[in-house]
Amino acid sequence: MTEVAKNGTWGNDRPIGVAVLGMGNVGTEVVRILRDHADDLRSRVGAPVVLRGVAVRSLDKDRGLPADLLTTDAAALVAREDVDLVVEVIGGIDPARGLILAALNAGKSVVSANKALLADYTGELAAAAERNRADLYFEAAVAGAIPVVRPLIQSLSGDRVNRVVGIVNGTTNFILSAMDETGADYSATLAEATRLGYAEADPTADVEGYDAAAKAAILASLAFHTRVTAADVYREGISKITAEDLETASAVNCTVKLLAICERVAGEPSPEEGGKERVSVRVYPALIPRKHPLAAVSGAFNAVVVEAENAGRLMFYGQGAGGAPTASAVLGDLVMAARNKFYGGRAPGESVYAELPIAPIGDTPTRYHVNLQVEDRPGVLAKVAGEFAKHGVSISTVRQEGHGEGARLVVVTHHAVESALADTVAALAEMASVTSVTSVLRLEGTEE
Ligand code: NDP
Ligand code: HSE
Q: Where does NADP(+) bind (predicted)?
């Protein structure tokens, strides 16, 4: 091998020792790539990258690895002197958090795919990395193989990001795409997603939007240089979406997607906030026009659209989940961290200087698609329209479908704040001439 020129103090033959914590879907692929591509990795890093050990919960499974590489004592593996870099792909908060902190406090760099942990503890982990001059990388935590963390942290660090909108959960996108394509209902499609291995045995984190909310928190923190945690994200899942909702969407040339939306919104001129711009971070199912670029993202794929003041609109698309795609992002980080060891560089630290306040969902402007079952007689439309006007919600279009007992009104609004729309819907539900408010769906991705 040719000698690599460098500035740091790492000897060219001194290996960079790697510990992998977890050997499930992602860890298995990380270990495979580390072993299969050892020569390429050595050339790309400048020094050999050597797998020192893999921590798992159970030693009973056949992992296709020499027994002496496997351990159930993750803490001891992290503490080994010949481990320089730790890959955490266990998931969850504990013991992952303690293991990562132990690694960082010992000056070892960490690569993690753990969105649940990073959404809530990036501050603590980044501070430990900073104190100990170690690196913390987490490209795989958002949208699997798709490079979106690094573009936000590095490529766009000279620009001003105004909005990030994405489909960041593969399981729910698979379910909504299948409902759209086949007309099947939610439960049947979830069962199919489970059978195909997209949805886990307990699909709550995916279908109720927790997974997407964690990713939204990470994206918003990076985009707006503000610490946003999962608790700051307004969240609704897809479990209440019906086949009728998809039909309604189709009738207006839209489809339904679970969107993670992070955007700057104008600040309140209140003395506390001093008119400071705010950040709105939310995850919910919404109608989007079929011609919108995110409408074409089907199956388990993910996509993220970033709008920046100077770069304009950028779109990132690809596989947001799965062992090998996620491991690709982990390995990218691992090479960066290993190069930093070899050449003496550092990963960018956390940037939260802007400290923008979080806008409550009630203050967030969105368009709505409201479906009402109504009595079909003169004056009903005027009364319904009057209720929208009373609450300051401007109507864009109204369509009547059916007549007599089956009469329906479909109202599409201009942008209105959530609280005004909620008050309107509550008032409509009380009206004698409104039999039921059949559905209220947000409408995103329109120019208006
Ligand atoms: P899995 O559940 O498939 O694997 C988890 C692994 O961690 C298993 O090997 C398990 O051991 C091991 N483990 C659990 N507890 C311990 C412990 N106390 N000590 C040592 N090892 C332990 O998870 P995934 O591979 O799917 O996900 C890993 C991480 O990657 C998560 O943070 C996830 O959110 C993230 N991620 C996953 C994606 C995916 O598509 N799967 C996509 C993007 C991110 P054992 O095998 O013995 O049970
Ligand atoms: N459960 C996640 C999904 C895995 O369905 O997208 C990737 O984070």
A: 21-28
Measured CA to CA, the distance from residue 177 to residue 169 in angstroms comes to 12
Domain 363-443 falls under CATH 3.30.1330.10 = no
Which tokens in the block code for residue 320? 């947001």
Residues lining ligand 1, CB < 6 A? Answer: 21-27, 55-58, 61, 74, 89-91, 95, 113-115, 140, 144, 321-322, 326
| Domain limits, the chain | 16-144+324-343, 149-320, 363-443
pLDDT (tens digit, 9 = 90+) per residue, 349-378? Answer: 999 999 999 999 998 999 999 999 999 888
The arrangement of secondary structure in 149-320, i.e. its CATH architecture, is: 2-Layer Sandwich (3.30)
**Ligand 2 centre and the CA of 171: distance in Å?**
6
Q: So what CATH class is 16-144+324-343?
A: alpha beta
Give the tokens for residue 177: 């795409």
Residue with tokens 């309604």: 248
Atom of ligand 2 nearest to the CA of 115: 8
- Which residues are annotated as part of the binding site? 21-28, 115, 200
- Which ligand 1 atom is at minimum distance from the Cα of 88? 29
Residue 291 designated active-site? no
Sign of the torsion formed by the C-alpha atoms of 96, 317, 298 and 217? positive
- The answer for residues whose C-beta is within 8 angstroms of residue 389's C-beta and 6 or more apart is 395
pLDDT, tens digit, for every residue of 403-413? 887 799 999 99
